[in-house]
Specification:
heterodimer, A: mainly alpha, 8 helices, 2 strands, B: 906 residues, alpha/beta, four-stranded mixed sheet, 10% strand, flat
């Protein structure tokens, strides 16, 4: 299995896009709540389906963060998980933010807070973890896509840093896959907005 | 690197444990709760790690991960999976469980049960892998993260259900790890939880915790019942089988009641009603009745309880009233004190002591507190400009002056307020002031007054409040009102008045003055206790052993939460200060307010003239106790609740349960062989009983009453589904089942009698008498046990409640005023009808008839339920109508009205 292939399969896999629509495919099988994980303790927004990766060895892995990290390692792309302890912790933090805050958001107000916070965070950063592209960017891109496609031109300008980052990530080789391209206008229309 | 912890909340625990395990060189910064969060992305109580590079980690799990990474522990797939599971599954449920434990007062075991499947998941993972820790044979980041989330809820492994053996072992070995132990110590568990509780209480509840207990909505949907687990069902069946022997023995305190070492000693006060007003229903539910219900509950729990109250008798209002009625102030007080005492006796209020403030003890104790405040420098002297009447040789208190309002020129404005424009007035600003006594013209003169130096006591007050809020149950409105008082800044408050009717000020230069009533009145709690027992200090100077509950309406909060505690803190004599301040909102009457002057509303002395028993009043007032918001008394609602909840639900169930024993089993409780369905019912009842305890422990009186009604609703359904009256005619197996259903039902009735005692003491006593419940079973435990075993003989069973008819209630509504009454055309009703209705021409006969009607009604219902022949039913219905007609006549109503009604209803 070549590296590129695995990473591509990893990125294109349905549960990395929006894991609500997990379908069976390739080495990974998606199923409902492994080992009693789903159920009564659903988060604020109903957690829909939790992906499970059935490997040839062991009982399988549950959860999008866990599976993504596993696949990245299988692909020998460990740098996507961060190189130093600090980077690794930061990646971990943003993956967690993606699965708890972004996936847990249920209202317009939640979405607004997420975009506002990310906009502040990305003010002085190219990527979520600073200057290196990581798995956090990939998963966040997939988590935010359905939000970004619905933003108005004015909102995109309001969250300028998020827009800049998002546009960058969707053009990063191999990331966008089947998702639609979100259009950002280069010249600002609402110059007083910010 | 710097670890900032804004609140000593539970999230700090795992982070500190991970730092300890990795021996990371962190600089720890504890912050106050008000400090703004370091990162905008997390709730403000979450810790944040500031790395030397400037990066801020705000996720506790990522911080833990970082510490383990610096130690050289790379994450594995398994540890990643646990971290993700913790963040997405465990964390939200744990927050809700912690909220349930800290704010709603659930026990650790109950909170653990709330985590249900999640704990089972850990148990199964540990058991399946056979490893000592979550991700291997040594503790990893996963163990620390999961342990850190569970520890604040469980504290020790004993809070875990015993069948989760692997989880218990794992949890115990985690708790014993040095890093974890140190973390728990430095976060100061469990004290930190109290801090966190006071923080949580100021926040909106987490969405998961918005379950039944926080809802203020009256009715619960039948469908919202939570599923029972097998364990709960088995436990309920076990408890049932243990029988009455498992109950604690009812405890009778010695008289006078004094604190007992090693027992829970509960001191309950109700705000002292002002003597010269007859209390209305709102006053009664606001403090006296609420406190009584709680006191009765405490006694049933075998807590050593003292309930004191009395009339507040000093002050301007008494003095002016005395002038009006041509009596001395003392005579006025004697007259009205008797009225109050009679009203509360009628309402069956179980004071241990109902006293008054005009006693020598009051003078002694108030003057002692005053002297101590003076000696400690907490009193200030200041000059006040005040009106003085030379004719009467006295400074005039506000109420003794009348004049022209400076705002609206109304000519009869009082010295404190203008009745026309409603504005508050400073007496010296009145135009053309007049002395109310001699009609002389007073002049403005400077006079000396004493002030309590509240600003100087503020620091002590805040320290005490913080502690009392963290450990006690204060209603939300009490906290809110207190906070807003303190936020506005405390100012010195005048404690002296130019009156004669009060406690004299024992200081030269002030001998012609008395204490202002707000300083004086709360001391009444102490002096009334002192008149009850000379060992009163064992209650009032004993904060170590005594828990103090103050009941009041919300307008009284500042006096009990700020001013009186300041007096006692300043006097510095180890006084017992309030632990739980329970304030109600207001009760309105129909659509408006109670008003003595307009004759609107029901006042305490009139309630008994309505012919409606005291227990019905108690029930209805407690049912609509203004717990979270204002509520309104309504006659039609009273009728509805009496007829639906009491008659059809509670009364019907208890009566049927007892009747089945009498009719089918000759008055002897039959043998019971429990089926799984019966056990489910036991578990359901146990659940309601536990809920009842949880709510009453938090003084949520109104909501706890709903648990009683739910139990009887379950009981009615149980009887309806199992149809013992049919099965008793069936084969051996059916007969046995009829016996079981009857036995379980009558035991539920026995449980209800005890649970009902705080609310309706006479009805409870009546049930106790009818079912011959042994006095030793008259105590509350957390389990539903079989207290009336097979072979127990019950007495004569009769209906507990009477139907309230519309005409009667309409007549009462008209009599007591209220908005809608005037629109009702009264042509068909002769005007004197209410009087005839009330006149007990032959109350004995009336009672007999009422009972006969009820009995006959029951009989008819029974026949219908048994699908008896139509001819037989018709005959019995005819008898019933005849009885109703007689009753209507005896009550002085027109029989034409009620007979057709009866027919329509068929």
């Amino acid at each position: 299995m070549g590296l590129e292939v695995v990473v591509r399969r990893c990125l294109s896999h349905p549960f990395l896009s929006r894991w609500s629509s997990a379908k069976d495919g390739g080495a990974a099988g998606a199923g409902r709540g492994g080992a009693g994980a789903a159920g009564e303790a659903a988060g604020p927004a109903e957690r829909e389906q939790i992906p499970v990766l059935q490997t040839n060895s062991g009982p399988g892995l549950t959860g999008i963060m866990t599976i993504a990290a596993y696949l990245v390692k299988q692909a020998k792309k460990e740098q996507l998980l961060g190189s130093t302890a600090e980077e690794k912790a930061v990646v971990q933090q943003w993956l967690e933010y993606r699965v708890t805050q972004v996936d847990g958001s249920s209202s317009k107000e939640d979405t607004r807070i997420i975009l506002k916070d990310l906009n502040i965070h990305l003010e002085d950063k190219v990527y979520l973890a600073g200057n290196v592209f990581t798995l956090a960017d990939i998963l966040m891109y997939y988590g935010l896509h359905h939000i970004m496609v619905d933003l108005t031109v004015q909102e995109k300008e309001k969250y300028l840093n998020v827009s800049r980052w998002f546009n960058h990530i969707q053009h990063y080789p191999g990331v966008r896959q089947h998702l639609s391209n979100v259009v950002f206008i280069k010249n600002r229309l609402y110059t007083n907005a910010h | 690197m710097q670890l900032r912890v804004p609140v000593r909340g539970p999230a700090a625990l795992k982070v500190l444990a991970a730092a300890g395990a990795a021996a990371a060189p962190v600089q720890l910064v504890w912050g106050g709760p008000s400090e703004p969060p370091r990162a905008p992305l997390r709730p403000p109580w979450a810790p944040a790690l500031e790395l030397d590079s400037g990066t801020v980690l705000f996720s506790p799990n990522a911080i833990c991960q970082f510490f383990f990474l610096t130690r050289g522990d790379e994450p594995t797939d398994l540890s990643n999976q646990w971290l993700e599971w913790e963040a997405t599954e465990l964390q939200p449920a744990a927050t809700a469980a912690l909220y349930a434990r800290l704010v709603l007062g659930r026990t650790a075991l109950e909170a653990a049960q709330g985590l249900g499947k999640l704990l089972t998941h850990i148990e199964q993972s540990l058991a399946r892998r056979g490893a000592a820790f979550l991700a291997g044979d040594t503790p990893s980041v996963a163990d620390v993260v999961v342990w850190g989330t569970l520890f604040p809820i469980l504290q020790d492994e004993n809070s875990l259900p015993s069948e989760l053996q692997a989880l218990r072992t794992w949890f115990q070995s985690m708790t014993l790890l040095e890093a974890c132990r140190d973390a728990a110590d430095s976060v100061l568990m469990p004290k930190a939880l109290l801090e966190f509780k006071s923080y949580l209480q100021k926040q909106p509840p987490p969405c998961l915790a918005m379950q039944r207990a926080t809802s203020n909505e009256p009715e619960e949907e039948e469908g919202s019942e939570r599923a029972l687990t097998e364990e709960e069902i088995a436990a309920a069946a076990d408890a049932w089988a243990r029988g009455a022997a498992a109950l604690p023995k009812p405890w009778q305190p010695q008289k006078p009641v004094l604190p007992v070492e090693g027992m829970r000693n509960v001191l309950i006060t109700s705000a002292l009603p002002y003597v010269n007003n007859v209390p209305h229903l709102g006053n009664i539910i606001g403090c006296v009745l609420s406190a009584d219900t709680f006191a009765r509950y405490c006694r049933l729990r075998n807590w050593n309880t003292l309930y004191v109250c009395g009339t507040d008798e000093y002050g301007t209002a008494t003095e002016t009233k005395a002038v009006e009625e041509g009596l001395t102030p003392q005579e006025i007080c004697n007259k009205y004190h008797t009225i109050h005492a009679d009203i509360y006796r009628w309402f069956d209020i179980s004071f241990d002591c109902f006293g008054r403030t005009t006693t020598p003890s009051q003078t002694t104790i108030a003057q002692d507190i005053f002297q101590r405040l003076l000696a400690r420098g907490f009193l200030l002297q200041d000059t006040v400009e005040q009106l003085r009447c030379e004719g009467c040789q006295r400074f005039l208190a506000d109420r003794f002056v009348e004049g022209t309002c400076p705002f609206c020129s109304y000519e009869e404005a009082r010295g404190d307020q203008c009745d026309k424009c409603g504005k508050l007035i400073n007496a010296v600003e009145l135009k053309n002031p007049q002395c109310k006594l001699c009609r002389g013209v007073p002049t403005v003169k400077p006079t000396q007054h004493l002030f309590l130096d509240l600003p100087k006591l503020e620091e002590r007050l805040e320290a005490w409040l913080e502690q009392s809020w963290a450990t006690g149950d204060w209603t939300a409105n009490a906290r809110y009102i207190t906070r807003s008082w303190i936020r506005d800044g405390l100012k010195p408050r005048c404690i002296t008045r130019d009156l004669k009717w009060g406690t004299p000020v024992p200081l030269d230069g002030f001998r012609d003055k008395v204490f202002y009533v707000w300083f004086d009145a709360p001391i009444g709690y102490l002096s009334i206790t002192a008149n009850y027992t000379d060992q009163w200090e064992r209650w009032w100077k004993n904060p170590q052993q005594v828990e103090l509950y103050n009941f009041m309406a919300k307008d009284n909060v500042p006096f009990h939460s700020v001013i009186f505690p300041c007096s006692l803190l300043g006097a510095d004599d180890n006084y017992t200060l309030v632990n739980h301040l329970i304030a109600t909102e207001y009760l309105n009457y129909e659509d408006g307010k109670f008003s003595k002057s307009r004759g609107v509303g029901v006042f305490g002395d009139m309630a008994k003239d309505t012919g409606i028993p005291a227990d019905i009043w108690r029930f209805y007032l407690l049912y609509l106790r203004p717990e979270g918001q204002d509520s309104a008394f309504s006659w039609s609602d009273l009728m509805l609740k009496n007829n639906s909840e009491l008659l059809n639900n509670l009364g019907n169930f208890i009566n049927r349960a007892g009747m089945f024993v009498c009719k089918f089993f000759g008055g002897t409780v039959p043998n019971m062989v429990l089926t799984p369905d019966d056990k489910r019912l036991l578990a359901r009842v146990t659940l309601e009983l536990r809920q009842y305890h949880q709510l009453l422990e938090k003084v949520r009186i109104r909501e706890a009453l709903r648990c009683i009604l739910s139990i009887s609703r379950h009981g009615n359904q149980y009887i309806q589904v199992n149809e013992p009256w049919k099965r008793i005619k069936g084969d051996e197996k059916d007969r046995q089942h009829a016996g079981t259903v009857t036995g379980v039902a009558v035991n539920m009735a026995s449980l209800l009698a005890v649970m009902l005692q705080p609310y309706m003491p006479s009805v409870s006593l009546a049930i106790q008498g009818q079912l011959c419940i042994p006095p030793d079973s008259f105590v509350l435990s957390h389990d539903f046990t079989c207290t009336l075993p097979p072979g127990h003989r019950v007495g004569t069973v009769s209906p507990l409640f009477q139907k309230l008819e519309n005409d009667r209630v309409e007549a009462l509504r008209r009599r007591f005023g209220g908005g809608q009454a005037k629109q009702t055309p009264s042509a068909s009703q002769p005007p004197p009808a209410p009087e005839t209705l009330m006149a007990p021409i032959d109350s004995q006969r009336l009672q007999e008839l009422t009972q006969e009607v009820a009995r006959q009604g029951n009989h008819v219902r029974q026949l219908k339920a048994n699908k008896a022949e139509k001819a037989q039913i018709d005959m019995e219905v005819a008898k019933l109508l005849e009885l109703k007609k007689q009753l209507a006549l005896a009550e002085g109503k027109s029989p034409e009205v009620s007979v057709p009604k009866g027919k329509q209803k068929k």
